[in-house]
Amino acid sequence: MFEAPDSQYLVPFDGSFDVATASTVPQTDGHPHKGKHRAKRTEDLNKLQRVLAAGDRHAVLLVFQAMDAAGKDSTIRSVMQGVDPSGCQVFSFKKPSSLELDHDFLWRTTCRLPERGRIGIFNRSQYEEVLVVRVHPEILGYQKLPGELNLDTIWDERLTSIRQQEEHLARNGTVILKFWLNVSKDEQKRRFLARLDDPDKNWKFEPRDVVERRSWDDYMKAYEDALNATSRPWAPWYAIPADKKSYMRARVADIIIDTLQSIGLRYPEPSNKDRAEFAEARAELDSGDS
How many C-beta atoms surround the C-beta of residue 57 within 10 A? Predict the structure, then answer.
């Protein structure tokens, strides 16, 4: 299993993460995120994705979680631009379907895990089951769970299931990176108002988002518990400041690139049989026959 590259935004593995002290603004203004630096990141990620696909030994899973208006969609779009579309896949998880509710809570995301050689991206994920559902436990009534519900234990049980599944996936070649885009309540308000003020952004606004905003403190508690319970060397969380979008995107891209560079990706070496067949093919091509 790979180990997470160090970063100032890496959530500790010892359960000591504190949402209240996690920065929503860049801790430095010196990080390059425009022009040639951005182009270099795009080129690097594109090259690494090609080697990942050719090697066909690892899958990569990128998980994005955040409060509304933090910038999940735009970050995914920005970071993955220039990457071969055939080498990655994006899934957004919203309200579960009736089919999904007929399975355990991990089923719908498990069905969409990336195969070897590909980058899979979850825009929201199985973590909704310990975030939104925790803040609104009445949702559990739709999930057809057996027996009596115990709200004192179910969240720890679900976090254990998530953690164990991630460890299993990592042991079998899936590289997991999880990003919490940490936007401040004030910045979220500014972005909501910008959506209301700009007719071209009205479509982004959901009245329900303002309702969810009333539960901000409950969400912060749920995030803190989830990140502490599941940030591990083989499936780390990164709490990325999200109040400045360009900085946030640059940091996410850097972490993905650093991780892919650390796992020893390489093009497959041809076998002796392959080399013999190559030589035969070259001889035939060099013979001049059409």
Answer: 14
